[in-house]
Amino acid sequence: MSFEKIMSIGGTGLNAQLVRMNATASNLANAGVVSGSEDTAFRAQRPVFATLLAGDTVNENADVQGGVRVDRIVNDTKPIEKIYEPGNALADEEGYVFSSNVKEIEELIDMLDASRAYQNNVEVINTAKDLLSKTLDLIKI
Amino acid sequence: MVPALSLIAINYFQTVMAQTLDNYFAFNQAAMSLKTERLEVISGNIANASTPGFKAKDLDFASLLKKSFGKTTSAEFDVEMLASHSSHLGYSNLPKWMNVDSGINYTVPLSPSLDDNTVEIGVEQAKYARAVIDYQASLQFMESKISGLRKVLKGE
Asked: What is the pTM of this model?
């Protein structure tokens, strides 16, 4: 039945957007983290989505076909800010700490977008479910 | 005499009646399965609303329905249709590598986005809503066909 396919495509969408919201939550939680060197400073995490074409599955055991998947998670490339704070326990020998490159407003907007996209997929699944139950009602007529 | 007659009746039902029923529902069946397929394509677009480089697709309903009925001689299927919407690419404009046989066309976005994703969520939502209503319309036709058939069988 094709409706199951619609629901599973919606499901892959929900899954991907959930990963995105998780990344945003982690970014926000780590927004205030400072570090002793530029290399170890926290960088915002960004999931990159890729299309699952018809016939592709999330992994070889899944029977979900088509939809979207999280391809990889990359570090945000925005520059790390260097702050002069000699009193900080993590400061390097010159007295600098390196803050994360998370921008709270960007994260909140990303969260908003992810939650809207999530709702869209929920709506797709709900509608498919309604249509499926209406179709099954045909045998009652 | 009587068993022979009922055998004939059963035979008649199996051959003639079953075929008639098949024909009776064939159009709606084809239409409904195509409409579910369209819902599937649009749900794929919505799921990929934030996938970089994704190209939104849509189904050319008229040509597919025509194809699923094969070469029919009835006049209502003789209309030639290249694109069902002004923002769809017609078959004649499509590059060779696109699989036009599947009846799935790429939609042309109203305004292009930076990441080459051509899904416009508002447009897709509207299309999905429209496709749902189309499906429900088919469902209504099917319902009235079934209830009509029932009335005939009951002899009311």
From this structure: 0.73
Nearest residue on chain A to B54, alpha-carbon basis: A51
A127 touches chain B (CB under 8 A): yes
Q: Do A120 and B143 touch (CB under 8 A)?
A: no
Torsion of CA B68, B69, B71, B74, to 10 degrees: -150
Using a CB–CB cutoff of 8 Å, tell me whether A100 touches chain B.
no
- Which has the closest alpha carbon to B50: A103, A25, A113, A12? A113
Could you tell me which residues come within 8 angstroms of residue B147 by beta carbon, excluding any fewer than 6 positions away? A141
Contact A51, B119 (CB under 8 A): no
- Place A65 in a pLDDT band, splitting at 50, 70 and 90: low
Q: Are A97 and A83 in contact (CB under 8 A)?
A: yes
Rounded-to-integer distance, Cα A93 and Cα B106, Å: 58
Amino acid at B15: T
pLDDT over 60 (residue B81)? no
Task: Answer whether A53's CB lies under 8 Å from A69's CB.
Answer: no
Asked casually if ipTM beats, i.e. exceeds, 0.95, the reply is no
